[in-house]
C-alpha cells in the first residue's frame, strides 16, 4: 500500500462516520480528484470486498475490511523496507550485504542504499552506528541501545495506526513470542502489581509489556543484558521477582538479572503509581521544588486551581520518573495525546507551561506524549473543581396537587443532580414567566412563549424526559460558552490582521507573517514572536485537523488581539495539516479571557462542516467574522 492511500485509510478509520473528499484532500494537502484515486486503489486491493464505501455524504470505512487490508500490507512503503532492513541488521552479527539484499527483495541496489541512509538517520543520537566495509553494512552498539531501536520501530507503527499485536509482532521481529501470550501476561502483571500496592497506568503498561516481550525474544537469541546495571531497592526486587515468574510462565523464557532489573525499573518509572504513602518512594527535594514553582506559575498565569499538596506530590513523583526515563532515553508513549489536544486544549496548554518550566530547570526536552501525561494529571485535578462551573440552575413550574412538584423535583435531583440544580419551584398555574431567570425552566404547564430555556414535561418523568432535559442543558451550556466567545472576539479581531491567502511557509515563517500586522498595531513586539516560535517548537499548536493557534507562553501583549491566516490549500503544521492559523496575543489584563477564547475557538474549528463553511464564505475579513459569529450563534 502506498503512503497516500495508507494515510487515507488511517483518516477514515479514525473518523466516526462519513468524511467528504474535500476534507480528506485538506488533511493530505492534495486535490479531491487525488483522493478519489486513492479510494479506488484501496478498493481494488480489497476486491471483491469493498474497503471504502462511497455515497452522497462522501466516504466511510468498512472497518473490518479496511483494517485487514492495512494489516496485510507488506513491504510497500519506504518505512516498511527500512523496518525490514533494521530487523535484519539487528539479527546479523556479521551485518548484511547490499548486493544480496537487493537481489532477495527484487529491488535495485540504489534502493537498498537509500534505505541504509534512512536507517542511519533513524539511529542518529541513539548510541548505535552503521559500519561499512565494501558492500557489507553492520549495526554496532550495545544491547540496551538495540532494544530501544526495536521499541522505536514499534512506536512508529503505532503512530501510523498499527496497534494490533500481530502487526507489532511482525514489525519488531518477535519470532519466539506467541501473540496469544500478551493478554494473559498483562492480566497477571496488573494483578500482581496491584497486590504489591500500585495503581497501574493502563496507557503505559502495554508499552512496558512490549519491552518485556522484546527482552524475552532477544534472550532466546543469546542477546541478554549482561549483569545488572542497577542496585535494586526492595520495591524493585519484588517487581523483578514477579517479572521473572511471569516471563517464564507466559513467554517460556527465563531472563537474567540484567533484564529483570532493567524491566522492573521501567515498570516503576512508567507504568505504576503508589497507592499509599507507606511505600518507599523518596521524592528528590530539588525535583519537588522545581515542580512546585512550575505549578504555581501555571496556576497564576492561567487562573486555574491546581496548587494542592496531593496534586503536587503525584506530579512530582511523575516528573521524578520522567527524569529516570530521560536518562535512559526511554520515553513513554501516550496513545491519547492527539485526542487530549483536540478535546482539552486549555488543559494541554497548562501542561505545556508546566513542562516548559520543568524542562528548563531540569535540562530536559519534554515531548508531546510526556506533556500529555502531565495534562492528564492537570485534567484530573481540575475535574474536581469543574462541577460548580458547569452546573446549570433550573426552575420547576408544576401546579400544586398533592406532592407532584416534590416528586418531580426529587426525580430531577436524582437523575441530573450532577449537572442541573433546582433553585426554585413555582406551583402557580400562571407564574410570572418573565421573572424566571434561571438557566432552564422545567415546566408541566405550556408557557405562553416557549424559548430555548424551556423544557415541557409530563408530571411523571420517564427516562426519555430526563434525556431531553440533559440535552437542553448541554445546549444551554454550549450557548453560554459561545456567547462569551462572541463578545470577546468582537473586541480582539482587527481587519488589518487578516491574511488570505496564507502562503505555504514553515511554521516560524507563518508566525512571523501573522505577527507583522500586530507589531504594526503596537500590540506586540518582536520578542513576543520569538517566544511564540519557541513555544511552537516545544509542542505543536495544531489542536484540530484544521486549526493551529500559535502563541507565547507568557501573556505580555499590550492588549489582546488575534491575527488570522487562511490557506487555500492546507499547510503542514507539525505532524498535521491545517488551513486556519490564528496567532493569539494575550495581555496580562485579559487572563480570564484566555480560557474562553482558546477552548471555544478550538471547539468551533473542531467541526468539519464549520471549517468548510468558513473556507467557502469567509473570503474577506468582514465575511469571515460574520460567518464565524453565525457559527457561534448556532
TrEMBL record:
<dbReference type="InterPro" id="IPR036388">
    <property type="entry name" value="WH-like_DNA-bd_sf"/>
</dbReference>
<dbReference type="InterPro" id="IPR050661">
    <property type="entry name" value="BglG_antiterminators"/>
</dbReference>
<dbReference type="InterPro" id="IPR002178">
    <property type="entry name" value="PTS_EIIA_type-2_dom"/>
</dbReference>
<dbReference type="GO" id="GO:0006355">
    <property type="term" value="P:regulation of DNA-templated transcription"/>
</dbReference>
<feature type="domain" description="PRD">
    <location>
        <begin position="282"/>
        <end position="388"/>
    </location>
</feature>
<dbReference type="InterPro" id="IPR013196">
    <property type="entry name" value="HTH_11"/>
</dbReference>
<dbReference type="InterPro" id="IPR016152">
    <property type="entry name" value="PTrfase/Anion_transptr"/>
</dbReference>
<keyword id="KW-0677">Repeat</keyword>
<dbReference type="InterPro" id="IPR036634">
    <property type="entry name" value="PRD_sf"/>
</dbReference>
<protein>
    <submittedName>
        <fullName>PRD domain-containing protein</fullName>
    </submittedName>
</protein>
<dbReference type="Pfam" id="PF08279">
    <property type="entry name" value="HTH_11"/>
</dbReference>
<dbReference type="InterPro" id="IPR011608">
    <property type="entry name" value="PRD"/>
</dbReference>
<feature type="domain" description="PTS EIIA type-2">
    <location>
        <begin position="491"/>
        <end position="631"/>
    </location>
</feature>
<dbReference type="Pfam" id="PF00359">
    <property type="entry name" value="PTS_EIIA_2"/>
</dbReference>
<dbReference type="Pfam" id="PF00874">
    <property type="entry name" value="PRD"/>
</dbReference>
Amino acid at each position: 500500500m502506498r503512503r497516500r492511500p495508507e494515510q487515507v485509510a488511517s483518516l477514515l478509520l479514525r473518523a466516526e462516520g462519513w468524511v467528504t473528499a474535500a476534507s480528506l484532500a485538506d488533511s493530505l494537502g492534495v486535490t479531491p480528484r487525488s483522493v478519489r484515486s486513492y479510494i479506488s486503489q484501496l478498493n481494488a486491493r480489497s476486491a471483491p470486498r469493498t474497503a471504502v464505501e462511497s455515497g452522497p455524504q462522501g466516504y466511510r470505512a468498512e472497518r473490518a475490511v479496511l483494517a485487514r487490508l492495512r494489516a496485510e500490507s507488506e513491504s510497500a512503503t519506504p518505512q516498511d523496507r527500512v523496518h525490514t532492513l533494521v530487523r535484519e541488521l539487528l539479527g546479523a552479527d556479521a551485518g548484511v550485504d547490499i548486493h544480496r539484499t537487493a537481489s532477495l527483495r527484487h529491488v535495485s541496489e540504489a534502493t537498498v542504499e537509500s534505505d541504509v541512509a534512512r536507517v542511519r538517520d533513524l539511529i542518529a543520537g541513539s548510541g548505535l552506528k552503521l559500519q561499512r566495509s565494501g558492500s557489507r553494512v553492520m549495526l554496532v552498539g550495545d544491547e540496551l541501545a538495540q532494544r530501544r531501536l526495536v521499541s522505536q520501530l514499534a512506536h512508529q507503527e503505532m503512530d501510523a495506526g498499527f496497534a494490533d499485536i500481530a502487526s507489532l509482532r511482525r514489525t519488531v521481529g518477535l519470532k519466539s513470542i506467541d501473540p496469544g501470550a500478551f493478554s494473559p501476561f498483562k492480566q497477571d502483571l496488573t494483578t500482581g502489581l496491584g497486590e504489591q500496592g500500585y495503581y497501574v497506568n493502563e496507557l503505559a503498561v502495554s508499552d512496558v509489556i512490549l519491552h518485556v516481550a522484546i527482552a524475552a525474544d532477544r534472550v532466546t537469541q543469546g542477546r541478554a543484558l549482561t549483569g545488572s546495571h542497577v542496585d535494586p531497592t526492595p520495591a524493585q526486587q519484588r517487581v523483578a521477582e514477579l517479572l521473572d515468574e511471569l516471563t517464564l510462565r507466559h513467554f517460556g523464557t527465563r531472563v537474567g538479572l540484567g533484564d529483570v532489573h532493567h524491566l522492573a525499573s521501567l515498570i516503576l518509572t512508567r507504568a505504576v503509581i503508589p497507592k499509599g504513602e507507606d511505600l518507599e518512594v523518596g521524592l528528590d527535594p530539588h525535583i519537588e521544588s522545581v515542580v512546585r514553582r512550575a505549578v504555581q506559575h501555571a496556576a497564576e498565569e492561567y487562573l486555574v486551581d491546581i496548587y494542592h499538596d496531593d496534586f503536587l506530590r503525584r506530579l512530582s513523583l511523575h516528573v521524578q520518573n520522567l527524569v529516570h526515563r530521560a536518562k535512559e532515553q526511554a520515553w513513554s508513549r501516550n496513545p491519547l495525546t492527539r485526542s487530549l489536544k483536540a478535546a482539552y486544549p486549555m488543559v494541554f496548554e497548562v501542561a505545556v507551561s508546566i513542562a516548559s518550566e520543568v524542562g528548563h530547570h531540569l535540562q530536559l526536552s519534554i515531548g508531546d506524549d510526556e506533556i500529555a501525561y502531565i495534562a492528564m494529571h492537570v485534567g484530573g485535578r481540575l475535574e474536581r473543581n469543574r462541577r460548580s462551573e458547569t452546573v446549570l440552575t433550573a426552575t420547576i413550574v408544576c401546579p400544586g396537587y398533592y406532592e407532584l412538584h416534590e416528586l418531580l423535583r426529587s426525580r430531577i435531583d436524582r437523575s441530573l443532580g450532577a449537572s442541573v440544580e433546582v433553585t426554585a419551584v413555582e406551583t402557580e398555574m400562571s407564574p410570572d414567566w418573565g421573572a424566571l431567570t434561571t438557566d432552564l425552566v422545567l415546566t408541566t404547564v405550556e408557557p405562553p412563549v416557549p424559548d430555548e430555556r424551556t423544557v415541557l414535561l409530563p408530571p411523571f418523568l420517564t427516562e426519555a424526559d430526563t434525556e431531553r432535559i440533559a440535552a437542553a442543558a448541554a445546549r444551554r451550556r454550549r450557548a453560554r460558552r459561545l456567547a462569551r466567545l462572541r463578545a470577546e472576539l468582537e473586541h480582539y479581531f482587527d481587519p488589518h490582521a487578516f491574511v488570505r491567502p496564507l502562503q505555504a511557509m514553515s511554521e516560524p515563517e507563518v508566525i512571523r507573517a501573522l505577527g507583522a500586522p500586530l507589531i504594526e498595531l503596537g500590540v506586540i513586539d518582536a520578542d513576543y514572536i520569538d517566544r511564540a516560535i519557541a513555544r511552537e517548537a516545544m509542542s505543536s499548536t495544531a489542536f484540530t485537523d484544521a486549526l493551529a493557534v500559535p502563541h507565547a507562553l507568557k501573556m505580555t501583549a499590550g492588549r489582546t488581539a488575534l491575527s488570522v491566516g487562511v490557506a487555500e490549500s492546507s499547510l503542514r503544521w507539525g505532524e498535521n495539516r491545517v488551513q486556519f492559523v490564528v496567532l493569539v496575543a494575550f495581555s496580562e489584563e485579559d487572563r480570564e479571557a484566555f480560557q474562553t477564547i482558546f477552548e471555544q475557538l478550538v471547539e468551533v474549528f473542531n467541526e468539519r462542516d464549520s471549517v468548510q463553511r468558513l473556507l467557502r464564505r469567509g473570503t474577506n475579513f468582514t465575511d469571515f467574522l460574520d460567518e464565524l459569529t453565525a457559527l457561534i450563534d448556532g
